[in-house]
Amino acid sequence: MTQSIxxxxxxxxxxxxxxxxxxxxxxxxxxxxxxxxxxxxKAGAVVVPFLGSAEALSLFPSATVDEGAxxxxxxxxxxxxxxxxxxxxxxxxGKTVVVKEERKGRAIAVGMSLVSSDExxxxxxxxxxxxxxxxxDRYWGLFKKV
Length: 146
What we know:
CATH class of the largest domain: Mainly Beta
CATH architecture of the largest domain: Roll
Order of helices and strands: HEEEEHEHEEEEHEH
Largest sheet: 6 strands, mixed
Oligomer: single chain
């Protein structure tokens, strides 16, 4: 499972041999995978870090959005370039990016980059990140059952 998550997300977990791993499946097809405090959600072929796991989120680059974008993101909308105030370089399209709100820096969504970070810098409009997981979504609710 470790290798599957690492290859799917393009990261290295660097877990010690003594790392504790566990899985819960609160609903068929949705699995929460725990690695020493890091929680990931696996739903079919999609793997994302769980928003309630600061340790897992810290492994990924982030984008900060303005207050006006928050309500749209919490309803599942993709992250549009005009709402982004700043971001870390994530490289090419297809990378996992944590979306944070501007005021307190809290993670509110996890997305997949639709464009490279260099391309996003030059954009003034259009979608940059596909919203895969946000506060209050299905995964958020299912985690309360485990």
